[in-house]
Design a protein that fits this description.
Length: 403
């Protein structure tokens, strides 16, 4: 009776649990101790390296990044010359690494998806060709695949002198393929093009919001508003209208054959192409197996039910099987994306100016080995963590939610 009165008066006679037995408190303590341990190890390693450098009369620190680089970079997405700083050179290398990772992930995902579905095809030829593709690329080191494309394929393209003759025979040609790269027109953005780009971004955002609204509308009423045509109008028609109203603020600089090389336009070098094709196709073979395993993980009854409703093989795979298989595919897919980004450091083998190649040149000139390695580690860890965060968010969005 007394205990009941105490509870009615707001009291609580439950025994107090010690913090040592509180799971949430222990997790916080363990994480704090782990961070302190890691911080201590990093501090010890850094101070030890600084002391060793001091004994050798070598200075440490990142002040050298403001020094003149004194070397050229063949592929640069931003303005750069030999008079630029080491820091600017590292920015060029970082952008080149991000470009390889971005386009490589997109291509590897598309090829891996197609090959993974192809391995399960009822067509004997498609199934066997997909199997051969996977077995070949999965069992070859990525460095060898890079050399295959660089020395065995791209080096055998027509010489630049042949391109000159082709240009004379075809005065209207604007694309040229040679063993020095692919030459194509370079876009020249005029005043007001930023507004066009902003309209494109706004159109994409509006299309996403409209799609979310259409999905909710369908769940509420059972009727789905038109999505495809509205999204096409927002993403394509809106920027085109803005582009036209602003007087088409875009022109092109076309490549022109010179005395010894092409002038004008833009060129995609063989180094980039070799690395891009090698990493994309190599990673796609692993993604294909992940896709195949994900599809196999979907209950066979789902396919049979779709066939019973009259769906054909293609719509069944696209609308029934793949959406369920994504929940199995996404977690291991993240590892392959990270592997592709890290394997881009092999670019030094073919002379592509990625972060590692540019950093290696700076290391040889300045002797700042500890600092350059620290920059490499920090950049790759940051890129990997950001990629993992995005994929974890996407995986959470695709997960089943129990209601």
């Amino acid at each position: 009776m007394a205990a009941t009165d105490a509870r009615m008066q707001g009291g609580d006679d439950r025994p107090k649990v010690s913090l040592l037995y509180n799971q949430a408190f222990r997790q916080i303590v363990y994480q704090a101790l782990t961070l302190l341990l890691i911080g201590g190890v990093i501090y010890f390693a850094w101070t030890n390296a600084a002391q060793n450098l001091a004994r050798a009369n070598m200075t440490s620190g990142f002040g050298f990044l403001n020094s003149r680089a004194g070397f050229d970079v063949a592929q640069s997405l931003i303005a750069y010359s030999s008079d630029s700083t080491y820091f600017r050179a590292l920015q060029v290398g970082l952008l080149n690494t991000l470009v390889i990772g971005f386009f490589g992930i997109i291509t590897a995902t598309i090829v891996g998806l197609l090959v993974g579905i192809g391995r399960l095809s009822h067509n004997w030829l498609i199934s066997r060709l997909s199997t051969v593709y996977v077995e070949i690329f999965r069992n070859i080191p990525p460095l060898l695949v890079i050399f295959f494309w660089y020395l065995g394929v791209l080096a055998l393209l027509p010489a630049i002198r042949t391109i000159f003759q082709h240009a004379k025979d075809n005065p209207g040609a604007v694309f040229f393929v040679s063993n020095r790269g692919i030459y194509m027109p370079a876009p020249v953005f005029g005043e007001g093009f930023g507004i066009v780009a902003a309209s494109l971004v706004a159109g994409i955002a509006a299309a996403v919001l409209y799609t979310i609204w259409a999905n909710r509308r369908q769940l509420a009423t059972g009727k789905r508003p038109p999505v495809l045509w509205v999204n096409m109008a927002l993403v394509i028609l809106l920027p085109v209208v803005v582009f036209t109203l602003l007087g088409a603020p875009l022109s092109f600089d076309y490549p022109v054959p010179g005395s010894f090389n092409m002038s004008g336009g833009m060129v995609i070098g063989p180094e980039f192409l070799a690395l891009y094709l090698a990493l994309s196709l190599y990673t796609a073979s692993f993604i294909a197996e992940i896709v195949r395993a994900g599809i196999r993980g979907v209950a066979k009854g789902q396919t049979e039910a779709a066939y019973a409703l009259g769906l054909r093989s293609g719509p069944t795979t696209r609308l029934v099987v793949l959406p369920q298989a994504l929940r199995i595919i996404i977690p291991p897919l993240t590892s392959q994306y990270l592997n592709l980004i890290k394997n881009s450091s092999l670019a030094v083998a073919v002379g592509y100016a990625d972060l590692v190649a540019v950093g290696g040149t700076i290391l040889n000139q300045s002797g700042k080995a500890v600092e350059i390695i620290a920059i490499w580690m920090a950049v790759y860890v940051t890129i990997s963590l950001l990629t993992s965060l995005f994929m974890n968010w996407f995986n959470a969005k695709m997960a089943l939610v129990e209601r």
